[in-house]
Design a protein that fits this description.
The chain is an alpha+beta fold. The chain is built from four helices and three strands, in the order ααβββαα.
Protein backbone atom coordinates (compact mmCIF):
# COMPACT_ATOMS: atom_id res chain seq x y z
CA UNK A 1 0.00 0.00 0.00
CA UNK A 2 1.43 3.36 -1.05
CA UNK A 3 0.81 6.17 1.39
CA UNK A 4 -0.05 9.65 0.14
CA UNK A 5 2.75 12.18 -0.05
CA UNK A 6 0.98 14.19 2.65
CA UNK A 7 1.17 11.18 4.96
CA UNK A 8 4.83 10.51 4.22
CA UNK A 9 6.10 14.11 4.46
CA UNK A 10 4.90 16.72 6.93
CA UNK A 11 6.07 19.57 4.69
CA UNK A 12 3.92 18.17 1.85
CA UNK A 13 0.88 18.18 4.15
CA UNK A 14 1.59 21.79 5.12
CA UNK A 15 2.02 22.83 1.48
CA UNK A 16 -1.22 21.05 0.55
CA UNK A 17 -3.22 22.81 3.26
CA UNK A 18 -1.69 26.23 2.64
CA UNK A 19 -2.34 26.04 -1.10
CA UNK A 20 -5.87 24.70 -0.59
CA UNK A 21 -6.67 27.70 1.59
CA UNK A 22 -4.99 30.29 -0.61
CA UNK A 23 -6.52 29.00 -3.86
CA UNK A 24 -9.92 27.93 -2.48
CA UNK A 25 -12.56 27.87 -5.19
CA UNK A 26 -10.02 27.86 -8.03
CA UNK A 27 -8.91 25.00 -10.25
CA UNK A 28 -5.17 24.61 -9.77
CA UNK A 29 -2.30 22.21 -10.21
CA UNK A 30 1.13 21.90 -8.67
CA UNK A 31 4.02 22.30 -11.11
CA UNK A 32 7.79 21.92 -10.86
CA UNK A 33 9.56 25.23 -11.55
CA UNK A 34 13.10 26.45 -11.89
CA UNK A 35 13.39 29.61 -9.84
CA UNK A 36 16.40 30.05 -7.58
CA UNK A 37 16.89 26.30 -7.81
CA UNK A 38 14.16 23.73 -8.14
CA UNK A 39 10.86 24.24 -6.35
CA UNK A 40 7.11 23.96 -6.69
CA UNK A 41 4.65 26.43 -8.08
CA UNK A 42 0.88 26.61 -8.34
CA UNK A 43 -0.74 27.06 -11.74
CA UNK A 44 -4.34 28.31 -11.71
CA UNK A 45 -6.45 27.30 -14.69
CA UNK A 46 -6.81 30.01 -17.33
CA UNK A 47 -4.70 32.55 -15.40
CA UNK A 48 -1.31 33.69 -16.69
CA UNK A 49 1.84 32.52 -14.93
CA UNK A 50 2.19 30.68 -11.66
CA UNK A 51 2.66 31.37 -7.96
CA UNK A 52 5.89 30.02 -6.47
CA UNK A 53 5.67 28.10 -3.21
CA UNK A 54 8.16 29.52 -0.73
CA UNK A 55 10.28 27.41 1.53
CA UNK A 56 10.53 23.99 -0.11
CA UNK A 57 13.40 23.53 -2.55
CA UNK A 58 14.86 20.43 -4.19
CA UNK A 59 18.35 19.43 -5.23
CA UNK A 60 17.15 17.95 -8.53
CA UNK A 61 14.41 18.79 -11.00
CA UNK A 62 13.09 15.22 -10.99
CA UNK A 63 12.44 15.51 -7.25
CA UNK A 64 10.32 18.63 -7.82
CA UNK A 65 8.47 16.76 -10.60
CA UNK A 66 7.78 13.80 -8.32
CA UNK A 67 6.39 16.03 -5.57
CA UNK A 68 4.22 17.96 -8.05
CA UNK A 69 2.87 14.72 -9.54
CA UNK A 70 2.11 13.23 -6.13
CA UNK A 71 0.50 16.42 -4.80
CA UNK A 72 -1.64 16.61 -7.92
CA UNK A 73 -2.63 12.98 -7.45
CA UNK A 74 -3.47 13.77 -3.82
CA UNK A 75 -5.90 16.52 -4.91
CA UNK A 76 -7.49 14.23 -7.47
CA UNK A 77 -5.78 15.32 -10.69
CA UNK A 78 -4.42 12.97 -13.32
CA UNK A 79 -1.15 13.88 -15.03
CA UNK A 80 -3.09 14.91 -18.15
CA UNK A 81 -5.43 17.15 -16.16
CA UNK A 82 -2.48 18.82 -14.44
CA UNK A 83 -0.75 19.37 -17.79
CA UNK A 84 -3.94 20.91 -19.22
CA UNK A 85 -4.12 23.34 -16.28
CA UNK A 86 -0.44 24.29 -16.61
CA UNK A 87 -0.82 24.71 -20.38
CA UNK A 88 -3.79 27.02 -19.89
CA UNK A 89 -1.54 29.42 -17.92
CA UNK A 90 0.73 29.82 -20.94
CA UNK A 91 -1.91 30.93 -23.38
CA UNK A 92 -2.81 27.40 -24.39
CA UNK A 93 -6.30 25.98 -24.60
CA UNK A 94 -8.65 27.08 -21.88
CA UNK A 95 -9.57 24.51 -19.27
CA UNK A 96 -13.25 24.05 -18.61
CA UNK A 97 -13.98 24.78 -14.97
CA UNK A 98 -17.14 24.87 -12.93
CA UNK A 99 -18.74 28.25 -13.32
CA UNK A 100 -16.65 29.32 -16.27
Amino acid sequence: MKYSITTRYLDAAIIDQKVAGEFHGKVYAFAPVIENGYRLGVAVANESGYSPIAGKTFERYDEACQWANELNEHIGLSKDEALDIVGSTMGGSRVMTRGG
